[in-house]
Amino acid sequence: MLSEKTIRIIKSTVPVLEKHGTEITTRFYQMLFANHPELLNVFNHANQKQGRQQAALANAVYAAAKYIDKLEAILPVVKQIAHKHRSLGVQAEHYPIVGHHLLGAIQDVLGSAATDEILEAWAEAYGLIADAFIGVERGLYEQAERQAGGWAGFRKFRVDRKVKESDAITSFYLEAEDGEAIAAFEPGQYVSLKMDIPGEGNTHIRQYSLSDAPGKPYYRISVKREDGTEDRAAGKVSVYLHERVREGDTLLLSAPAGEFVLERNDERPVVLISGGVGLTPMVSMLNTLVETQPARRVTFIHAARNGRLHAMKDHVEEIVRKHEHVQVYWCYNEPEEEDNVDNAFHKHGYVDHAWLESIVSDKDAGYYFCGPVPFMRAINGALKAMEIPDADIHYEFFGPAGSLEPVSEQKPEVLSGQRP
């Protein structure tokens, strides 16, 4: 337990963290990697370059300070981050290293404003928070290793099949190289893929949602090729997977992880909403629902640029033909001539409140969504406008946590439902 004095000091730093949080976390990563370059084998370099990881950590530190007297309020977020840490291989011995450099960054950025009293209070608070993470992660490591078909660390999987799903997305069917059983998972979870790419100085680890139902003798991941733009470099791992990895090759996978999962005990209707490659966990959920709860009503809504970039369309429409309780709606924002001729979509433009409300027949449902952050902000806003209770709204960020508030209203908070 923290003393009242420590809590008071930590809370007094909330306005400072709101103003300087990202500057502090940017400096933190600079110092961390300069002194411990081996940790570059754990962190996503692309997220570092885009500033997403720095912003996510700044939000986490801000939330920890704001709720320091009631840390149970951020326990759901602790669990979500802990799942990612377990999948990446973060260990208890990493926490003192992180704490040392975080305090150093606070002192470096704030200068004389970071008094000894403030630094001592933050050292005490960090120790408490680190212990919470270590405890949760210890349980996750034990669970991952001891479950049927489970394992510790990374396990070798062979690429059994490589299937092109669209012009941008390819699926990889992965079977355990040792031929032994593989761990079960919940629809919506992900695995970490660890890769050593020729010519790269560091290992790269990426998380990919499992895109098929559990209970199969394989795991399936469906990867979008991230080509470069003027503002962003090409995705090293996704491009390598698309261009260089072949059937028969070996990949290293963590056991499944993640808190964004389908609530299977809920018998109410389900609304699955996705944009772009965000459909991967939604397809896992859909496949699971029709296999295990065929009488449960499902509305599947997907937004894509056009038919060429629309993955797994034939598969989902085949499910609709076979299951009368499943409805599907497609939204294209840049349809091509062939899409218009074939009546390949239901709405031209974007998923908005009016259209969403018109196609969801029963608001009393569980809502799940995933996709690019602007898409997710729009969906979240539409569901709020439909007065859907927070308890029925479930979502996940691909990559570090972000905010679903409109940009003009964003505050540095940690939101539940993300893959941190």
Automatic annotation (TrEMBL):
Catalysed conversion reaction: 2 nitric oxide + NADH + 2 O2 = 2 nitrate + NAD(+) + H(+); 2 nitric oxide + NADPH + 2 O2 = 2 nitrate + NADP(+) + H(+)
Domain Globin intervals: 1-138
Cofactors named for this entry: FAD; heme b
Catalytic-site annotation from UniProt: 95 (charge relay system), 137 (charge relay system)
GO molecular function, one term: nitric oxide dioxygenase NAD(P)H activity
Tagged with keyword NAD: yes
Xref: CDD domains: flavohem_like_fad_nad_binding, Yhb1-globin-like
Pfam families: FAD_binding_6, Globin, NAD_binding_1
Entry's cofactor comment: Binds 1 FAD per subunit.
Keywords attached to this entry: Detoxification, FAD, Flavoprotein, Heme, Iron, Metal-binding, NAD, NADP, Oxidoreductase, Oxygen transport, Transport
Annotated ranges, domain FAD-binding FR-type: 152-263
Binding site for FAD: 190, 206-209, 397-400
UniProt binding sites for heme b: 85
Site keyed Influences the redox potential of the prosthetic heme and FAD groups: positions: 84, 396
Protein name (Swiss-Prot/TrEMBL): Flavohemoprotein
Protein's organism: Paenibacillus hemerocallicola
Gene coding for it: hmpA
